[in-house]
Each structure stands twice: as structure tokens, then as C-alpha cells.
TrEMBL record:
Keyword vocabulary terms for this entry: Membrane, Transmembrane, Transmembrane helix
Superkingdom field: Eukaryota
Protein name listed in UniProt: Uncharacterized protein
GO cellular component: membrane
Membrane topology, record value: Multi-pass membrane protein
InterPro entries the UniProt entry points to: Ion_channel_UNC-93 (IPR010291), MFS_trans_sf (IPR036259), UNC-93_regulatory (IPR051951)
Pfam family, one: UNC-93
């Protein structure tokens, strides 16, 4: 429940899980490609994706209270653009490059989430 832990905490849990999955994927080759590690990567990615979905959806719903339809449409549009771009470059890049791109997006997204949270808190106190 987001009420119990907060939307920023839910988002951060998702970011940490997804980041850990990407880092573990990068290290998998040097860890003798153990099968159990593959299952850990899958669990981390699934848990992280679920937590991110909850945290981001809650944030969009709260921050754009008066304009929910446009906010969620914009959110889903950019989510689809990201999927399309990933699909387009997926055949041209090797797995490690794609993992580094994913890690970069996670870091940039984390910074953006933190900046957005600071801006929202400042506007809320006014």
C-alpha cells in the first residue's frame, strides 16, 4: 500500500530493485552465469517494475489532480515512445550496451523524480 510507505518510498524501492537487476545482469557473465542469479534478476525486475508503476501512477494522480486525463495520457504516451525506441534499437545494439542505456535512464529518471518531489513539496508549502 502506498499510504503505508509513501509514494516516494515506493518509487525509490522500484528504482533500487530495477537498478540492482541491471547491475546483476551486467555482472552475470563474471558470476559463472549461474541459473539462480537469472531468477533473482527476474524477481528484482518484476518487483521493481510493480513498485515503479504504483509510485509513478500515484504521483501523477496526486500532482495533476485537476487534469488527470491529460496527465495520464501524456504518461502513457511517453511510456509507449520509450518502448518503441527500445524496440527500434534492440536489433542494432548488443546486450551490454542496452543494459548501460537502461542504467543511464534509471539514473536520469531518479534525478528527475527527486527534483520533481522537491518542486512539489515547495509548491505545496506555499
Amino acid at each position: 500500500r502506498v499510504k503505508a510507505i509513501g509514494r516516494l518510498a515506493a518509487t525509490m524501492i522500484g528504482i533500487v530493485c530495477c537498478g540492482a537487476a541491471v547491475v546483476l545482469s551486467l555482472l552475470w557473465q563474471w558470476l559463472d552465469r549461474q541459473l539462480y542469479l537469472l531468477f533473482i534478476i527476474i524477481i528484482l525486475q518484476g518487483a521493481g517494475g510493480a513498485a515503479l508503476q504504483i509510485g509513478i501512477t500515484t504521483s501523477v494522480g496526486i500532482m495533476f489532480m485537476g487534469n488527470n486525463e491529460a496527465a495520464f495520457a501524456n504518461y502513457k504516451m511517453w511510456q509507449s515512445v520509450g518502448s518503441a525506441v527500445t524496440f527500434i534499437y534492440s536489433t542494432f545494439l548488443c546486450m551490454y550496451i542496452k543494459l548501460y542505456i537502461m542504467l543511464t535512464v534509471i539514473v536520469v529518471g531518479t534525478v528527475c523524480v527527486l527534483v520533481l518531489e522537491v518542486i512539489y513539496k515547495r509548491q505545496k508549502t506555499r
